[in-house]
Amino acid sequence: MKKLSFLLFCSLIVCLSVSYGQSSGGVSIGKGDQPANPKSILELVSQAKGLLIPRMTTEQRNAIFTEADLTTAGLLVYDSTINSFFYWDGTTWKNMASMDNTISTIALEEAKTLSITEGSRTVTVDLSSLTNAVKRFEGTPVAAGLNNQLGYDGVNDALYIYKTDKWVLLNAIKDSQRLSTSGTQLEIENGNSVELLPILGKTPTGAVNPDVATSKEGDTFLNTTNHRLYFFDGTTWKIINQGSIDNLARTVVSGTVNPTTGNTIGDIFYNLTDSKLYSYNGAAWVAVGTNAASQTLAAILGVNTSAGNLKITNLANPVDLQDAATKNYVDLTVAANAKKWTNLTTLTYSLAADDYYLLNMVPAATSGPVVITLPAATLAIQGREFCVLNNNGTQIITFNIEPVGTIKNVAPGQSAKFICTGTYWFCSTGN
Q: For residue 376, how far is the Cα from the chain centroid?
């Protein structure tokens, strides 16, 4: 019996040597007595059969590991739930089917076959049966297309898609793009950009107005340095009003036609057709800065708003009591009605037409009197008046009226007021 067992064991060894070849620890299956490739621990050879990796559900796969295990990195299984190979990297399961899904090439052949290369595989789509047919251009597309329609530039071998109102280049599209912002623009790596203002729902702000080279007609901007709201007219940034607008909460929208519905008092709209800014007064849109609807300065500035240390120019001369006046008008009016002070420094003086206050400034040591000659009292100077103050301690002031002669003396320290009645001079005060 022992002899029979020994013979069976030897037979098994011989059979294994026929099916498995070993060399330096490597094992080959399917090569007969040929050794395994010296670079491989296991070599499988077959022209009719494959290697069947362990199959299991997602739940079973996830149950294999409950924590990181770097010693088992490289473990391979087939997930029968989602029909995909997974390998364990020591900390997590990796889906081998999603390792490379970057779109590297998009090409259009003969304007009807779309070819998309993703990683190591290429997918082709026949576009010839689409109702929204591909338009072919000899150069960059110019003519308008249908929304989402494809366009092919045969000169530059470029593929475009039509979005809303323009052709967008597709050749550079990837499944991942770098994004950056510039002002209110979202910049995409492939060269496209998206205006964020309608999405953000507010007027952009900053310490310095945006560069005119990147601004569009109708853009608005709140300058946080001077707290003023600006709009771009296509050439320059212009101030909408001069008031303090720290609490501005509205967004200025633009378009070619003023809105007809959904308007509320105080809404602001920039019309791209006539390049004017409008405000809604509850009944109609009124162009800001015009007199079309008897717009008042109060309506523009609002209540208790600051003029920002600015000035109003080109005012007309006032007519009514509450009309504003220019500095020039005020200066001329004051000058015309000014009551002149005249200091008497000599013993003789003739009354001038604009004299109103006469003050004796002749030194007290000078022998007096001070003689002031008045014009003859006539109807031409009726109502003419002047005052005199004699602050000299010793001299008197004598008034000499032509051709009558001396009519009045004002003693030192006294004052007097004279009025012309048209026929004589009347002294209302004095000694």
A: 75
Q: 225: number of CA atoms within 13 Å, CB side?
A: 5
Q: What DSSP element (H or E) covers 58?
A: helix 58-64
Q: What is the location of CATH 2.60.120 in the chain? A: 339-427
Helix (H, G, I), strand (E, B) or coil at 63: helix
**What is 192-213 written as a DSSP string?**
-EEE-HHHHTS--EESSPPPGG
- Stated as kind and residue range, the H or E segment containing 187 is strand 185-188
Q: What is the pLDDT of residues 153-171, one digit of tens each?
A: 888 878 888 888 888 887 5
Please classify residue 170 by burial: count the beta carbons closer than 10 Å to its beta carbon, then call 0-12 exposed, 13-18 middle and 19+ buried: middle
CATH level 2 (architecture), domain 339-427: Sandwich (2.60)
What pTM, to 2 d.p., does this model score? 0.27
**CA–CA dist 362, 199 (Å, integer):** 83
Q: How far apart are CA 89 and CA 301, in angstroms?
A: 68
How does pLDDT run across 312-322, given as a tens digit for each residue? 777 788 888 77
Return the percentage of the chain with pLDDT > 70, whole number: 68
How far is residue 24's CA from residue 50's CA, in Å, rounded to a whole number? 25
pLDDT tens-digit readout, 59-82: 999 999 989 998 989 899 999 998
Instruction: Report phi then psi at 352, rounded to 5.
Output: -90, 165
